[in-house]
């Protein structure tokens, strides 16, 4: 009997895995915060030195020239004040510089990041329309159906709806 009990005690001392916290709950964990995250970009998405973001269609080098555009990841900075997103900035490529007071979530799942951006857009607020583009840039997602729903939703602010229509057009052009 001692042997059985001795065999189970070490099992009781093993840590119990914590339930995974969603990306959305990590971002909105504090009322006032600056949070940054990175995720894989869809193929052809690249960023330039001045913060420009390009989506290449594969025809850039047909005349023997290509720009110095660094491919992914997508990098997003979200500023929260009183629990609301007041600023959202998107970059592609490059690297984060160390900053005090910033919560860096590191590399996250591209589909989960895309859904976070769509949730920010649906909530409205000062940075809602800025959330559509980074949702679209995420790898391994097909968000045009979500964008179409946003565009048709009369409860969503006009700027978000316009942005959603623009990006649906971009996605449809690529699909066509």
Description of the structure:
- This protein has 176 residues and is α+β, with helices and mostly antiparallel strands.
- Helix content is 36%, strand content 22%.
- The protein is built from six helices and seven strands.
- It has helices at 2-13, 23-27, 110-123, 132-137, 144-152, 158-175, and strands at 33-39, 45-47, 53-55, 70-71, 74-81, 84-92, 102-107.
- It has a four-stranded mixed sheet with strand order 6-5-1-7.
- A hairpin with a 2-residue loop joins strand 5 and strand 6.
- The chain is globular.
- It starts with a helix and ends with a helix.
- The model is unreliable at 8-18 (pLDDT under 50).
Could you provide a short overview of the structure?
This protein is of the alpha+beta class and 176 residues long. The protein is built from six helices and seven strands. It starts with a helix and ends with a helix.
């Amino acid at each position: 009997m001692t042997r059985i009990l001795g065999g189970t005690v070490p099992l009781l001392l093993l840590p119990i895995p914590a339930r995974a916290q969603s990306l959305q709950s990590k971002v909105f964990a504090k009322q006032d915060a600056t949070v940054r995250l990175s995720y894989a970009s869809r193929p052809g998405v690249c960023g330039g030195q001045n913060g420009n973001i390009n989506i290449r269609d594969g025809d850039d080098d047909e005349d023997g020239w290509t720009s110095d555009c660094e491919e992914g990841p997508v990098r997003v900075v979200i500023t929260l004040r009183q629990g609301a997103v007041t600023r959202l900035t998107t970059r592609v490529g490059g690297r984060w510089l160390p900053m005090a007071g910033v919560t860096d979530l590191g590399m996250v799942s591209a589909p989960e990041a895309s859904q976070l951006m769509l949730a920010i857009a649906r909530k409205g607020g000062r940075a809602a329309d800025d959330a559509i583009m980074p949702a679209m840039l995420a790898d391994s997602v097909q968000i045009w159906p979500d964008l179409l729903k946003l565009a048709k939703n009369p409860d969503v602010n006009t700027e978000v709806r316009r942005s959603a229509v623009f990006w649906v057009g971009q996605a449809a052009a690529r699909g066509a």
